[in-house]
Write a structure and sequence with these properties.
Elements: H1 3-11, H2 25-30, H3 37-48, H4 55-62, H5 69-73, H6 80-94, H7 99-111, H8 115-130, H9 133-140, H10 142-146, H11 148-156, E1 169-170, E2 178-182, H12 187-191, H13 193-205, E3 208-211, H14 221-224, H15 229-243, E4 248-251, H16 254-260, H17 263-266, H18 274-283, E5 284-286, H19 287-294, E6 305-310, H20 313-316, H21 323-330, E7 335-339, H22 353-356, H23 358-374, E8 379-382, H24 385-397, E9 403-405, H25 407-415
Parallel strand pairs: 2-3, 2-4, 4-5, 6-7, 6-8, 8-9
Antiparallel strand pairs: 1-3
Helix pairs in contact: 1-6, 13-25, 19-21, 23-24
């Protein structure tokens, strides 16, 4: 079904009941009707009736995080996630952005979906951090005055250490139970290589041969969730070719897993790729989802630590993966899991949102960080690199840096008997 046919049909599902309002991050912040899902649907209906995509209307669409909390809350099954994707694609086609906005988006989408470009940035960025120049620049506030978005980009970058490369294949330990492909991602690969290493080790210790294709690139998540559909399709086709010959593709970043599970819809109108896309989407699993399906085999060793588990939006709302990470953590002896208040409200990362909308993103990050601190946990567990950077930055700004770890790193520490010191390094 084409977008002009699909949009009116989807818009008709909304009965304007308002159940979505308390779950919407921007409505929580501002209390403005047009910055709620119901209000944005009203604007979409206006556009369908001929109202042009002017700056005021686009501003409300741009302010949406695309977190999908409203989709979870909606009793009528409104596919708001699809509505905002279609609308953003229309915005990209029809709305002329300012020169500054175009330049910023060119930087973001010319850098973050390309691991090799990120890798080239690692050396200078690491030197910048190790020299102490980063702290000096922040004290001056020069970047904030020049561009809040560039200041956010600089501030969110995690401390960079060495980034050892993974082999192309990691052999199962003990009897082989499965052969899986592993997506290494873009930001995950270059900024959080320890997460990928831990993921490969955990899968191997649970009896999986892990295939890690060296030629893999971006899955297209940032492009897809920003309305850049043609670009997302190009990334999707390459990812399908890369992982077509494995039985299961394991993904350890929430946004990436969400986008790969959408390939069937993204390429549905492409006869050459539709069936291949559907097959790959059906074989894609989040790491926690797959490990629970597989069942535990490797012995868990005690890990005496208290963790707060953060629900990444593209894991909980987009993929419905909520219980599985908690089940994995609950299976570790002596580990205590504490819940974070208002878990369905986004932390403000939302892909590129904290770069394009740094003001509201920081407010949401501060809100989430306060809830994390209230748990009294020692470690924050987050299964998405954007969330990890966003909440770590907010904790640091509140003067309460905390260790942030991925579910894979917690499991890895338990399976290898490392103890809490195996991962407790604050990101900020």
């Amino acid at each position: 079904m084409s977008a002009p046919e699909e949009l009116p049909k989807l818009l008709g599902d909304c009965v304007h009941c308002g159940f979505c309002l308390p779950t919407c991050p921007t409505y929580v912040l501002w209390g403005e009707e047009m910055d709620s899902p119901r209000g944005r649907i009203h604007l979409m209906e206006q556009h369908q009736r001929g109202e042009p995509l002017g700056p005021a209307m686009v501003q409300h669409f741009d302010a949406c995080l695309g977190c999908m909390a409203c989709v979870t809350a909606c009793p009528s099954g409104v596919q708001y996630d699809r509505l905002i994707e279609l609308t953003r694609a229309e915005v990209e086609r029809e709305h002329p952005r300012s020169a500054a906005d175009r330049a910023l988006r060119k930087i973001i989408f010319g850098l973050f979906p390309y691991p090799r470009r990120l890798r080239a940035l690692r050396g200078p960025l690491r030197l910048y951090q190790r020299s102490g120049l980063d702290r000096a620049v922040r004290r001056t506030g020069v970047l904030e005055r020049l561009s809040p978005s560039l200041a956010a980009m600089e501030r969110l970058a995690p401390p960079l250490g060495r980034a050892p490369r993974l082999p192309g294949r990691v052999a199962a330990r003990g009897g082989r139970r499965a052969t899986v492909g592993m997506l290494t991602g873009c930001v995950q690969r270059e900024f959080f290589p320890g997460v990928n290493a831990a993921t490969a080790r955990v899968l191997a210790m649970e009896g999986c041969d892990v295939v890690i294709p060296r030629n893999q690139g971006c899955c297209g998540a940032l492009s897809l969730h920003s309305g850049r559909e043609d670009e997302a399709r190009r990334f999707a086709r390459r990812t399908i070719e890369t992982f077509e010959n494995v039985d299961v593709i394991v993904v350890n970043a929430a946004g990436c897993g969400s986008s790969m599970k959408e390939y069937a819809r993204l390429l549905a109108d492409d006869p050459a790729w539709a069936a291949r896309a559907e097959a790959l989407s059906a074989r894609t699993r989040d790491l926690a989802e797959y490990l629970v399906e597989l069942g535990p085999r490797a012995p868990r060793r005690p890990l005496p630590v208290t963790v707060a588990y953060h629900d990444a939006c593209h894991l909980a709302h987009a993929q419905g993966v909520r219980s599985q990470p908690r089940a994995l953590l609950a299976g570790i002896p002596e580990l205590t899991v504490r819940e974070i208040a208002d878990p369905d409200v986004c932390c403000g990362s939302a892909g590129t949102y904290n770069l394009l909308q740094p003001g509201p993103a920081a407010e949401l990050g501060d809100r989430k960080a306060a809830h994390v601190r209230a748990t009294g946990a020692d470690v924050l567990v987050a299964a998405n690199p954007g969330c990890a950077m966003q909440i770590a930055d907010a904790l640091g700004r509140q003067g309460a840096p905390m260790a942030v770890a991925h579910t894979a790193e917690i499991l890895d520490a338990s399976l290898r008997g490392l103890g809490p010191d195996g991962f407790r390094t604050p990101l900020s």
